[in-house]
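User: Hello, beginner here. Can you help me understand these amino acid letters and fold codes? It all follows right here:
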Amino acid sequence: MNLFLSLQQFANNSLRGMQNYYIEIIIVVLVGIYLILFYEMNQLRQEGMTPKNLNNMCDLSSDELNEKCKTLNSNNCNLTRCCIYLSNNNKGRCVAGNRNGPTFIDEIETPTMKADHFYFRNERYSI
């Protein structure tokens, strides 16, 4: 009888331990996601780019917008609704555009890079 109770207690404690283990994993994952989001938002703020600012820049003239887009990294570029990330397998740069491509066609091929695809809001498009 004592052996059965001991096994039952062991099983109950093991299950509680497993539940706590999974809860700890979930907490670690959630904290990791929070820290990544916090880091990304902090990076945007340091660059003077909040989500509101990123979309307000879309109201600029085409030339001004293109210059502003060129200052963005690939992550920030893909957050906007008016910039695209031109790319080839080696390089990339952010320019004004939308899902139809760059605002200025001459941005596709420059002396330093010939783009063969672009990303608009993290979705890949061929040129």
User: Anything to note?
Assistant: The longest helix spans residues 2-46.
